[in-house]
Each structure stands twice: as structure tokens, then as C-alpha cells.
Amino acid sequence: TPGSKRMVGTGPGGRCSALGRCSIVDYHGNVLYDKYVRPCQPVTDFRTPWSGIRRHHLHNAVPFAQAQEEILAILEGKVVVGHSIYNDFEVLNMDHPSHMVRDTSTTRHLQHLAGFPHGRRSSLKLLANKLLNRRIQAGRRGHCSVEDALAALDLYKLVQGAWEQEMERRLGDEPTVHPMDHYMQDEFWPDEVLTDGL
Questions:
Q1: From the DSSP assignment, how many helices (H) and strands (E) are in the chain?
Q2: Model confidence over 97-114: pLDDT tens digits?
Q3: Its pTM surpasses 0.85
Q4: 3-173: which CATH topology?
Q5: What gap in Å lies between CA 88 and CA 154, rounded to an integer?
């Protein structure tokens, strides 16, 4: 389940990060979740050049507690793909089993494919440009979390075979993901996702 989030700032000078938007897509690129989120504390910096979020986006946004519950229900038991994904987990106050996480910012497979030095952390924008020939995060309206989630998904797919083999070797003989013919099929989705038509 590739996901991406956008942060806004709360507190003095907007220095505290809070979730402002979350987007989740399935393996096939279908959007499962894409909602603006109202933080628990008043927003003091919308960080629009990076977040793409403006004041009016949060007028009818879902409260953080509701969004957190909805997001955790979707991600439970799923392999989660994202770029610097542990930042997303932190802002959601969630723990996800490490063997069920694929962070495109840290895998050596993408660095190798891009011809970058081992151990280097590359931005999603740079990897998407180099490996997908795709320009993201380029508009004046700020980053789009759906666009970022799709880029992380497509980067994962480039190295999926080698990455999953590596994970299986690390964990022993137990498969780390559902077989591909079951990957993110609706039988694994929470009922709310199916009924909401997201």
C-alpha cells in the first residue's frame, strides 16, 4: 500500500509538524484514501510551497483522530511502500512491523539502479526523474501527495523482485507479502473503503 502525506506547522513559528493530508494508493495505483486532515492544534504555518495545502483545504477536513483510525485500518496487515515512510508513521503515532515496510529512500536496490553511491539517501523527486523519467513536485501549487505515492509505488515496482527476495532471505522461508494475485485485492480492504467508494 503506497502512501504519502503532507505536513503543516503548528505551535510557535509553525515549527511542530502535523498531518495535513494523507493519500494512499493500492498496488495498481487506485486511490484508496485521499483526505485533508485537521490537526489537533491550530495551524500556524500551512507550508504551502511544500504541502500544497491552503487554509480553505482544512475547513471541512477530517479531525486527526478520525483520519488516524481510518488510515490505520487500511494499513493494518499490509506491506506499506513510501519514501522516508518512518516520518509518516511518526506523525500518525503508529508502529508498523519493519518487515512490512518498503522505504524507497533507503533501499540499496534503487540507489544501485540509479547509479548513485551506496549509502546515499536520494529525494523522491531525484529518483523519479532519474529512474521513471517523471517530473514531480515541480508545480507552484506545492507537492501532491497522490503524485508522490504513485512515484514511490512505481519505484518499488522497478526493484520489487530483488527487494522481496532480499526480505525473504532475511526473514527465512516465510513469505513477506501476499502472492501477487492477492496483493491489495478488495478482500483485504476494510469495509469502509469499499462502501465509501474511495
A1: 7, 7
A2: 999 999 999 999 999 999
A3: no
A4: Nucleotidyltransferase; domain 5 (3.30.420)
A5: 19
